[in-house]
Amino acid sequence: MPMKLLKTDTDKMQLIERVLHAKRYALTVDKELCMGCGICVEICPREAIEIRKPPKAEGGKAGRPTIEIDEQKCHYCGICDPICPFGAIEVKIDGNHIISVLESESFPQLIREITVDTTKCDLDCVDCEKACPLELIKVRVQDANGKEVRNIESRPDKENLRVVVDIEKDRCPCCRLCVVKCPNDAIRVRRILQGFIRIHPERCPDKCRDCLDVCPITGALYLSDDGKVHVNELYCVYCGACKIVCPQEDALTLQRTSIRHTPVRSGAWNKALEKLTSTKEMTKELQAKSVMKTKETVKKRLAWRG
After folding, report:
1. Mean of the per-residue pLDDT values of the chain
2. What are the start-end ranges of the E strands in 31-132?
3. With contact defined as beta carbons under 8 Å apart, do 111 and 261 qualify?
4. Among 110, 153, 166, 234, which is most buried by a count of CB atoms within 10 Å?
């Protein structure tokens, strides 16, 4: 039995703690990073996380959904931590960021494949930094000694300067806005989540902009000349925040079809994958794993015989 169950809730963060005789568990939600997408709500095995829609003032904008964690139900399994596409949740044991389901490979991490070829970058280009809707990119210029250069134009040794692009990858949902805006094709980003989203304008309430108000990615949703919200799937990360706030159940359809993740060794991920995508997509992944396992077995047997 726990010695203490603690909860701290402020404007910027929510912290729950379970204090035992030998261990201290803590789960923190950074409210500034959380986009209210509800992915953690969908996969929590204890149903310890609840999504809440803030009240909307008449004629005002829709507020971003928030999550509420029940300190009585949470058992700090940690699966909400690595699955958050915005890096808003952190689970710690005795102050250390330890997630046992990752160490045992029974639950995966999201794969954020982001590469930058800075040799293609112009010294004065900051287009990717300006494009990032979550302000995760910082472009700097350094000299040969690694010192940051502020005034590039005054430097006679421009050929010895280099561009450094820092990206907070753990928080990046891989919207690819930086890729599209980069003039030199220097950035490569692969999506984490694949899927499709459809808005049915004929079913939308008149003058409703709720989905647009909460979308964390600039340009993924936009207001068209017809006064309705439309989708640009080039930038959509399929987080689902728009679906949560939509007041008309059949006005917006969102379906995830695949998730790029690290390998897993158990079936604990299967149920979560089914909830986040569909039974069909879960079956596809299981079949793919089965094929790969068969190939590995054949290779081992051939190597043994050889």
Report:
1. 92
2. 49-52, 66-69, 89-93, 114-116
3. yes
4. 110
Q: How far apart are CA 216 and CA 114, in angstroms?
A: 19
Higher-confidence residue of 34 and 290: namely 34
Condensed to tens digits (0 to 9), the pLDDT of residues 233-261 reads: 999 999 999 999 999 989 999 999 999 99
DSSP state of 203: G
Give ∠ CA 51-229-215 in degrees, rounded to 5: 35
Q: Which residue type sits at 256?
A: R
> How far is the C-alpha of 196 from the C-alpha of 212, rounded, in Å?
17
Which pTM does this prediction carry?
0.90
**15 near 26, Cβ under 8 Å?**
yes
| Nearest residue to 102 via CA among 132, 81, 74, 129 | 81
- Whether 301 is covered by a domain: the verdict is no
Last-in-domain residue among 103, 125, 155: 103
Which residues does residue 92 pair with via DSSP β-bridges, in sequence order?
A: 26
> Which pLDDT score is estimated for 265?
81
Note down the domain range covering 198: 194-259
* Total domains, the chain: 3
pLDDT of 87 strictly over 70: yes
- For residues 122 and 175, membership in a common domain is answered with yes
**With 60 as the cut, is the pLDDT of residue 180 above it?**
yes
